[in-house]
Amino acid sequence: MKIAVLREADGETRVAAIPETVKKFIGLGAQVAVESGAGEKAGISDSDYKDAGASVAGRAAALKDAGIILCIAGPDPATLKGAAKGAMLAGALDPAHRAGDIAAYAKAGIEPLAMEKMPRITRAQSMDILSSQSNLAGYKAVVDAAAVYGRALPMMMTAAGTVSAAKVFVMGVGVAGLQAIATARRLGAQVSATDVRSATKEQILSLGAKPIFVEGVAGIEGEGQGGYASETSPEYQKAQAELVSGHIAKQDIVITTALIPGRPAPRLISDAQLASMRPGSVIVDLAAEAGGNVEGTSPGKTVVRHGVTIVGAVQLARTLPADSSALFARNLYNFLSAFWDKEAGKVDLPADDEIGKALRVAVTEDAVG
Ligand code: NAD
Q1: CA 352/CA 369 separation, integer angstroms
Q2: Which residues have CB under 6 Å of ligand 1?
Q3: What whole-number distance in Å separates Cα of residue 250 and Cα of residue 169?
Q4: Rounded distance from Cα 134 to ligand 1 centre (Å)
Q5: What ipTM was predicted for this assembly?
Q6: Which residues are catalytic?
Q7: What pLDDT, in 10s, does the model give residues 259-281?
Q8: Which domains are seen in the chain, by residue range?
C-alpha cells in the first residue's frame, strides 16, 4: 500500500510524517511518497525523507494510487483531485467546524478519519493527537508566560538581595495542565492548581504543587464520560468562584486550560477577579479558541486589562514544529500499524472496532448532496 504525506497549507508548521515513521512504514511493507517541501517548517528536508526511503514528488504524483493520505489539518478538497477512490485521509480533520470539507472528501470517494475523535481508552493512548499536542501546549504556555512576565520565576539569593519565586496557578489539570505544572516547577516557581475532577488532586501533589479545591459542595465530582469534565452544579460554580477570587489575587502567573467537550469553555476568571490581580501579572488562556476561561480573552492576541497581560493562546503546538510533528507522526504510525494486515499489505480498520467507529466521520446523504 502506498502512503502519501501532504505538504500543509500556509500557517501550519507541522508535518504528518518524519523520517523515523517513514522508515517504520516501509518496514511494514508500505511505499511512502512525500510531497516536496512537506517537512520544511519542521526542519526536515526532502533529502532527509529520501534517505529514509521515501519518494519525494509534487502533490499529484504523491497522491497517485495512494491508499492512505496523511495530513495534519484537512486539506482543501479541491487539492486532492487525482486521489484514488477508497483512499483513507487521516489527520485533524475538524469535523465540528468543517462539515462541508468532510462531505466533499466523501463525495470524491475518500474516507475521512478524524484523528481528534480517538477514543480515550488505554489501547489508543499512543495514537491520541489531542494528548500529544496538548502536552506540548502546556509546556509552551509556561515558557510564553515567563517571556512576557517582567520578573524571574525561581527564587534567587544574590549579593544584591533576594528575588522571590513567582506564584503560578494552573486551572484545569488535564494533559496540558499537568505539563504546565511540571514546567513551572522546573523553572522554580511556587505552583498551585485546581480542577473539577477530584482525581487530579493526587496528580497535583505528585508534581510537588498545591491543590486548591472546593470541598463539601454538591456537584463537586465533575468527571464525565471518558475522563473528560462535565458541567458542575451552580452551587459548585459559586463556591469555586469564591475560592478562586481569594487565591488569584495573590498569583503572578495563571495558566488556564479548562475545557468541557462540546460546550464553550467554562468562564473561570471574571473581569472583577482580573482587577484584583497585581498589575504586571500574566495569564495564558489555553482555552481561548473555545471561548476562553478568562473574561476579555482574544484568541491569537495579547491584551492588557487592569494591568494584567492576557495571552489568548492558539495552536501552541505549532510553535514547536519539530517536536509536535514527531509526536503527531508517531500517533499516526501507532494507529495505522495497529491495524496493518501484513498478509494483505494494507490497513484493515474493521467497521465494528471502537477506534474505527470513532474516527470514521459520519457523512449523511444530504451533506454529500
Ligand atoms: P480537557 O482538555 O478536556 O480539559 C482540561 C481540564 O480542564 C480537565 O482536566 C478538566 O477536568 C478541567 N476542567 C473543566 N472544567 C473545569 C472547571 N470549571 N474548573 C477547573 N477545571 C476544569 O482534558 P484532557 O487534557 O483532555 O484530559 C482529561 C482526562 O482524560 C485526563 O484525566 C487525561 O489523563 C485523560 N485522558 C485519557 C486518555 C486515554 O486514556 N487514551 C487520553 C487523553 C486524556
Answers
A1: 26
A2: 120-122, 124-125, 128, 130-131, 134, 171-177, 194-197, 227-229, 257-260, 266, 268
A3: 10
A4: 10
A5: 0.95
A6: 120, 125, 128, 131, 228
A7: 887 789 999 999 999 999 999 99
A8: 2-117+320-362 (3.40.50.720), 136-319 (3.40.50.720)
